[in-house]
Design a protein that fits this description.
The protein has eight helices and 14 strands. By secondary structure, the chain is an alpha/beta fold. It has a single domain, classed as Ribonuclease Z/Hydroxyacylglutathione hydrolase-like (Metallo-beta-lactamase, Chain A), CATH 3.60.15.
Length: 254
């Protein structure tokens, strides 16, 4: 298994791209603006999209991708998410008002897009690769994911704040190698982080103290213009964990 980071920023501008990761060449984990850097041929090979939640910075490329390559494919693109997230997509995105409902195009019997619900703790196997939804705590229903090759596991928290159930599950993972965790705000914006259910460096440090497994730790979802100060604060608050800033085009081998 190979995971390539297409986008890992909390915003856009310059070379910044929002959250999206490509597993091998056929599975997306979230579908933010980073998906737009793929070629048409690469887009046409994507069979599955696993979503952490419904916010635009994580789903914005799905409508354009389906519209661009749906006609090139023999099977629909499958969007996997918890049922509340799928319902948000049905009501507020693929609703014929904001974007066409591609589960009905070209017709309901052979659509360009289909939905498949996932559930916490229930592993989905895609050609031998195991993806398991993990608990998350955000302002909309949300999950993280464990990616497990058998040899090693990577945990991506998605957008989340303080959440003991997440760590209860992570600490069970014997082959944990990588942890990708968000820190959206710097410490002076702690109140905003709490209100929006994100993390800031001081909160991140509190959460990492709950981690009982050794792992390489990477920080995602840094806000544009604040990444340097936030990473400096992370090193001051949580430097013992040796966290790294996640970067576009970084590759994780599992």
């Amino acid at each position: 298994m190979k995971l390539r980071i297409l986008g890992c920023s909390g915003g856009i501008g310059g070379n910044l791209r929002t959250t999206s990761m490509l597993l091998d060449d056929d599975v997306l984990i979230d579908a933010g603006t980073g998906v737009g850097d793929l070629t048409i041929e690469e887009l046409s090979r994507i069979d599955h999209v696993f979503l952490t939640h419904s916010h635009l910075d994580h789903v914005t490329s799905i409508p354009f991708m389906v519209d661009s390559v749906g006609w090139m494919r023999d099977t629909p693109i499958t969007v996997h998410a918890i049922e509340p997230t799928l319902e948000i997509l049905r009501q507020h995105l693929f609703n014929w008002k904001l974007w066409p409902d591609f589960t009905q195009i070209p017709d309901a019997k052979k659509p360009f897009l289909r939905y498949e619900a996932v559930a916490l703790g229930k592993t989905v196997e895609v050609k031998g690769r195991k993806l398991t939804p993990l608990p998350a705590n955000h302002v909309v229903p949300a999950v993280g994911y464990r990616l497990d090759s058998g040899r090693a596991s990577l945990v991506f928290t998605g957008d989340t704040t303080e959440h003991d159930p997440l760590w209860n599950e992570v600490n069970k993972i014997e082959n944990l190698r990588y942890l990708i965790i968000e820190t959206a705000f710097c410490n002076r914006e702690r109140e905003l982080a709490v209100a929006s259910k994100h993390l800031c460096p001081s909160m991140l440090a509190e959460e990492l103290r709950k981690l009982k497994r050794k792992a390489e730790i990477y920080i995602t979802h840094l806000k544009p213009g604040e990444s340097e100060v936030t990473m400096q604060e992370i090193m001051e608050c949580a430097g013992d964990f040796r966290p790294h800033m996640l970067e576009n085009n970084q590759i994780f081998e599992l």
